[in-house]
Amino acid sequence: MDKVSVTLKVFFQDPFWVGVVERVEKDILTVSKVTFGAEPKDYEVSAFFLENYYRLRFSPAVGTVVKEMHANPKRMQREARKLLKETGVGTKSQQALKLKQEQNKTEREEFNREQREADKLRRFELKQQKKKEKHRGR
């Protein structure tokens, strides 16, 4: 059976609070970024995560190495405390978010180009129609 690991990190990135959801599945990392307004409470974050997990748009996949976790409770507690002190996003997460941003940018540019060409064609057709109407009566 495949193992899926999901991690949610919430941190302050001036001027907003930001949440980064990291999903590791079969040595593949995908990331999604959520912007909160004011500082979210724990129950608000968990409620948001539970309600909107399936609506999150994850970045393209990035390869990663998954370490096996041992079930030592004290070690897990120390690591959780250390993760809480960390600020920022891991480099793999940053790469995945950047990849997602670039992908969205290319999609947006392609859409705008198509809109521009369609508008140009529409104006050309309108100009041709006006030209025909001018010469129709003579």
Written account of the structure:
- It contains three helices and four strands.
- It has helices at residues 42-52, 73-85, 91-136; strands at 4-13, 16-25, 28-36, 62-63.
- Strands 1-2-3-4 form a four-stranded antiparallel sheet.
- 8% of the residues are buried.
- The chain is α+β, with helices and mostly antiparallel strands and 138 residues long.
- The mean pLDDT is 83.
Number of helices: 3
Outline type:
elongated
The averaged pLDDT comes out at 83
Query: Biggest sheet, strands in spatial order?
Result: 1-2-3-4
Structural class: alpha+beta
Name the helix and strand elements from N-terminus to C-terminus, one letter apiece: EEEHEHH
Notable characteristics:
single chain; 138 residues; alpha+beta; 4-stranded antiparallel sheet; 3 helices; elongated
Quick summary:
The protein has helices at 42-52, 73-85, 91-136, and strands spanning 4-13, 16-25, 28-36, 62-63.
Write the layout of secondary structure elements.
Elements: E1 4-13, E2 16-25, E3 28-36, H1 42-52, E4 62-63, H2 73-85, H3 91-136
Antiparallel strand pairs: 1-2, 2-3, 3-4
